Amino acid sequence: MAERAKNAYQKAISVDPNYLSAYYNLAALFEKEGEVDQAAYYWRMRINLGDWSDVWTWRAKEHLENL
Questions:
Q1: What distance in Å separates the CA atoms of residue 10 and residue 12, rounded to the nearest whole number?
Q2: Cα–Cα distance list, 3 to 10, 14, 53, 57 (Å)
Q3: Rounded CA separation 33/52 (Å)
Q4: Residue 66 has pLDDT above 80, yes or no
Q5: 11-49 pLDDT, tens digit each
Q6: Which of 8, 20, 12, 10 lies closest to 49, judged by CA?
Q7: How far, in Å, CA of 44 to CA of 41, rounded?
Q8: Contact (Cβ atoms closer than 8 angstroms) between residue 56 and residue 24
Q9: Contact 45/21 with Cβ under 8 angstroms?
Q10: Which of 17, 27, 56, 65 has its CA 20 to 30 A from that of 9?
Q11: Residue 25 CB contacts under 8 Å (≥ 6 apart), including other chains
């Protein structure tokens, strides 16, 4: 199931590179599976594309700091 979700989120990003929820969800999936490098990549992408007034950008930053 996680592989299908990852594929769907990656496809969503290929269609809309600014679809922030997909980056967040990919990072969370990779983090849950212990794939720290992949998780860090998607956390960084979510942070870099996000707006600092958005709570989800701050949550992504917290996740990245805790890896």
A1: 5
A2: 10, 16, 32, 24
A3: 27
A4: yes
A5: 999 999 999 999 999 999 999 999 999 999 999 999 999
A6: 20
A7: 5
A8: yes
A9: no
A10: 65
A11: 5, 9
What is the token pair recorded at 18? Answer: 């600014």
Whether 50 and 67 have beta carbons less than 8 Å apart is answered as no
The pTM of this model reads: 0.93
Cβ 11 vs Cβ 22: under 8 Å: no
Alpha helices in 1-67 (DSSP H): 2-15, 20-32, 36-49, 55-66
Q: Retrieve residue 53's tokens.
A: 């007034």
- Expressed in angstroms, the distance from the first to the final Cα of the chain is 24
